[in-house]
Design goal:
By secondary structure, the chain is of the alpha/beta class. It folds into three domains: about 70 residues, Ubiquitin-like (UB roll) (Roll); about 120 residues, 2-Layer Sandwich (Alpha-Beta Plaits), CATH 3.30.70.20; about 350 residues, 3-Layer(aba) Sandwich (Fe-only Hydrogenase (Larger Subunit), Chain L, domain 3). It contains 19 helices and 20 strands. The strands form six sheets. It has a five-stranded mixed sheet with strand order 2-1-5-3-4, with helices on both faces. It has a four-stranded parallel sheet with strand order 12-11-14-17, sandwiched between helices. Strand 8 and strand 9 form a beta hairpin.
Length: about 575
């Protein structure tokens, strides 16, 4: 089709048919304000903050949903446009709880930023919002309807990306609200607590439960031995909160900071990611060799586990019995580590730094405990750690690099790629190949399962067996594979499923914004960390081998099953 020529603010430009005015403006570096628009979502055109003038049109048009036309003349910065944008913001503010100083999104709120940019200084309209009850009924998420601007971003990600459908548009016109049906709380519906709604919300209408004060309190308690673990995805995303490029690896600075504020030991979740590969890899081989349920599904992502419990409980036998690396760590901290250091397990507090809001709920599961002690006591998201750093006034960018503590500080490149979609699969195959064949795997980079694509497949020759695997990220994509299993059409041996788009690097507790462009950079950081690692295969981790020699005895053994494996339940 013929390219379309138009003029924007006096500049001629040629674009492809179907291009919106907003997209054409971006090509000219003209910054149109938007609120309901999100670069990774469908066009909504509901907030009208992005209006522009088009010559020949009586009314202003929304640039995000108006396609260009041949010869169109557009003006983006007239007095009429500026006043209209300010009026739209004033209308939104009149129905918005503007308690900004104490809002969780103060300083990172898109509405607040637009009011500043567009010079909205006065509340010219009467306030018509009511302070509605806050829903904090679940372990992970908090919803504040009085802050909601009804942009619909959260509904789209919940329905179209995750396929969960925990929230809807309820009622009509000025009575419309975004909430679970029948006035229920999130704890009463099939929410998986993934937090993707948080990542797309432009304001403070939904956010993670704040457990920062719990951590400060235990650090002050001289009777507690407080240890912390840091997940792989945190090290390539935390820097964004401190003006570093997405994907910047600041592992050693995080370790230094955590030691400075008083943690007794700073450990790496990567250690138990390596351990997960040993246990999960052996479980896969056991199923293949003994007629077990195939394909085997991974169990590292708590949001994904809640999804299958709610929507596909008949397939739970396919799920690996391995706990996630977070929970394995907690179980070992209160058994092996406690025994080795002569510490009462009841005096140990395990804190996790995770990219994931669902990890808060996972830590509360009754199955995730041993002899009455919860594996993990407190979970903080990446964003919460950033808040702690800012609150402590320590300049993390100026800190020297420090190493994790032993024995849970030694890990491999295979462990760090857990943070990206396809990483668990790639790490598992690196180990399974060498365990089965007793030969070294020369090319350990399984690029077929890398990237943000929703579903990826690969075949790997392992001895006499062609192992066929699949990887899905985002629960709507997981549904495709689960339906194939139900229909008997899934001829895979092993399937990795990560709840969040992109895997843990796109977790619900990661820095905002988390667009696909930013996720790509985080993924690059993950694989860079793998490429520079001294050891890149989980079964080569000397600390894990020592753990088996001293304590666990063997993979899938009695002690491993007691501490490192679990079961899941039908929640339908």
């Amino acid at each position: 089709m013929t390219d379309i020529r138009l003029n924007i603010d006096g500049f001629d430009i040629t674009v492809n048919p179907g291009t919106t005015i907003l997209e054409a403006c971006k090509k000219l570096k003209i910054n149109i304000p938007t609120l309901c628009y999100h670069p990774d979502q469908d066009i909504k055109g509901s907030c009208r903050v992005c209006v522009v003038e088009v010559e020949g049109n009586k009314n202003l048009v929304a640039s995000c949903c108006t396609p260009v036309k041949e010869g169109m003349k557009v003006k983006t910065n007239t007095k009429r446009v500026r006043e209209a944008r300010r009026t739209m913001l004033e209308l939104i503010l009149s129905n918005h709880n503007g308690d900004c100083l104490t809002c969780v999104r103060n300083g990172s709120c898109e509405l607040q930023a637009l009011c500043d940019e567009l010079n909205v200084r006065n509340d010219n309209l009467d306030k018509v919002y009511s302070k509605l009850p806050i829903d904090n009924s679940n372990p992970s998420l908090v919803r504040d309807l009085s802050k909601c601007i009804k942009c619909g971003r959260c509904i789209e990600v919940c329905h179209k990306v995750q396929g969960v459908g925990a929230i809807y548009n309820v009622n009509r016109s000025c009575e419309m609200e975004i909430r679970p049906p029948l006035n229920k709380n999130l704890s009463d519906v099939q929410c998986v607590y993934c937090g993707q709604c948080i990542n797309v919300c432009p304001v403070g209408a939904i956010y993670e439960k704040d457990d920062i004060e719990k951590v400060w309190d235990v650090l002050e308690d001289e009777n507690k031995h407080v240890v912390v673990q840091v997940a792989p995805a945190v090290r390539v995303s935390l820097g964004e909160e401190f003006n570093l490029e997405p994907g910047s690896i600041i592992t050693g600075k995080i370790v230094n900071y955590l030691k400075k504020i008083g943690f007794d030991k700073v450990f790496d979740t990567n250690f138990t990611a390596d351990l997960t590969i040993i246990e999960e890899g052996n479980e896969l081989l056991y199923r293949i060799n003994n007629g077990g349920k195939l394909p085997m599904l991974t169990s590292c992502s708590p949001g994904w586990i809640r999804y299958i419990e709610h929507f596909y409980p008949e397939l739970l036998e396919h799920v690996s019995t391995c706990k996630s690396p977070q929970q394995m760590f907690g179980a070992l901290a209160k058994s092996y580590y406690a025994e080795k250091n002569n510490i009462n397990p009841e005096d140990i507090v395990v804190v996790s730094i995770m990219p994931c809001t669902a990890k808060k709920a996972e830590a509360k599961r009754e199955e995730m405990s041993n002899e009455g002690n919860s594996d993990v006591d407190i979970v903080l998201t990446t964003r919460e750690l950033a808040k702690m750093i800012k609150e402590s006034r320590i300049q993390i960018n100026d800190l020297e690099e420090e190493k994790f503590d032993d024995p849970f500080g030694i890990s491999t490149g295979a462990a760090v790629i857990f943070g990206a979609s396809g990483g668990v699969m790639e790490a598992a195959l690196r180990t399974v190949y060498e365990v089965v064949t007793k030969n070294e795997l020369k090319n350990i980079n399984l690029k077929e399962v890398r990237g943000l694509k929703g579903i990826k497949e690969a075949k790997v020759k392992v001895g006499n067996l062609n192992v066929k695997v699949a990887v899905a990220n985002g629960l709507k994509n997981a549904k495709v594979l689960l339906d194939l299993i139900k229909e008997g059409k899934a001829d895979y041996h092993f399937i990795e499923i990560m709840c969040c788009p992109g895997g843990c690097i796109g977790g619900g507790g990661q820095p905002i914004p988390g667009t696909n462009d930013i996720k790509e950079k985080r993924v690059m950081g993950i694989y860079n960390a793998d490429s520079i690692a001294k050891i890149r295969k989980s079964h080569k981790n000397p600390a894990v081998l020592e753990l088996y020699t001293e304590f666990l005895i063997k993979p899938l053994g009695e002690k491993s099953h007691k501490l490192l494996h679990t079961h899941y339940k039908d929640r339908s």
